[in-house]
Amino acid sequence: MSGNASILPSDEAFEDFKKQCLATENWVNKYKKEAMEVWIEEPVYRGSNSPKVHKIKCKMSIKDVSAATMYDVIHDGQYRKTWDPNMLESRDIARISDNADFGYYSWLCPKPIKNRDVVTLRSWRVKDDEYIIINFSVKHPKYPPQSNLVRAVSLLTGYFIKPTGPKSCTFIYLSQADPKGSLPKWVVNKASQVLAPRVMKSVHKAGQNYPAWKQQHLPEVKPWLHPEQSTLPMMDPAELSIQRSDSLENVDESSKVDAQESEDSS
Fold first, then answer.
1. Is residue 174's pLDDT more than 90?
2. Would you tell me the crossing angle of helices 196-216 and 67-75 to the nearest 10 degrees?
């Protein structure tokens, strides 16, 4: 490893992420139904040009799927293609260490907002029966932004999964991202009240169906648990640098109306 190995998250980074997942101060509840809650963090404004960072946190109490299975679901890229309703493309590109990889993901946004993509470094840790996966945006010369997609920035996004029993767990998703662009308020609201709960339900269902699916698809192969099984090429972390928000162009989409709603009202 080169001197730039520091791009890999430290133990402190994982601890800090966990702390944010469990924090309640400054978080406002936007959705609460049955076993699911969604919060957004109240932004702290520091002048007019403060960053438009959206911080959203979803928590689900899962009664019928183990923490280990939910962890596998989040990692399994092949499986994701079968259940993720928003995915356009997803690929793991290279390994950076036994518990980190570099990948690409693009997703559908509510019309007429342009679709987004990210390139991220993803890292994971299993410790004291707690499962944590975190990712953040990085830059690589071979994966520049594309003209038909808006390159979003994940400042810190991830999952914290903790067993509450042999077949039950608490599942928390937290995203701190700059979607790039002045998004209209309805997108932010729709994200917390409609889209996030919908995705969480898909993830839960994916967890319920995973053991049967995995039986049919290389049941022994789980490179996230057994790094020696990985077929990805190794990449020197020095090839990557942190993607800062301000180096990407902003797209003003604030005047866009929700396509769904304009159809409903016309």
1. yes
2. 90
- pLDDT, tens only, 81-127: 999 888 999 999 999 999 999 999 999 887 888 899 999 999 999 99
User: Rounded to whole angstroms, how far apart are CA atoms 265 and 97?
Assistant: 52
The dihedral built from the CA positions of residue 119, 50, 15 and 71, taken in this order, carries a sign that is negative
CA distance 19 to 31: 21
- In sequence order, which residues have a C-beta less than 8 Å from that of residue 116 and are 6 or more positions away? 106, 107, 109, 149, 150, 151, 152, 179, 180
CATH for the stretch 14-42+51-243: 3.30.530.20
pLDDT at 231: 95
Residue 49, pLDDT score: 58
**Distance (Å, rounded) from C-alpha 196 to C-alpha 207?**
17
Place of tokens 């975190």: 134
Average pLDDT on 217-223 reads: 97
Name the pTM for this structure.
0.87
E strands, the chain, are 27-33, 36-41, 54-62, 87-97, 100-107, 116-127, 130-139, 150-151, 153-165, 168-178, 241-242
- Cβ atoms of residues 27 and 19 within 8 Å: no
Task: Name the one residue in this structure whose structure tokens are 């793991």.
Answer: 92
Rounded-to-integer distance, Cα 111 and Cα 105, Å: 19
Is the separation of the CB atoms in 134 and 115 below 8 Å?
no
Handedness of CA 17, 132, 183, 89 (dihedral sign): positive
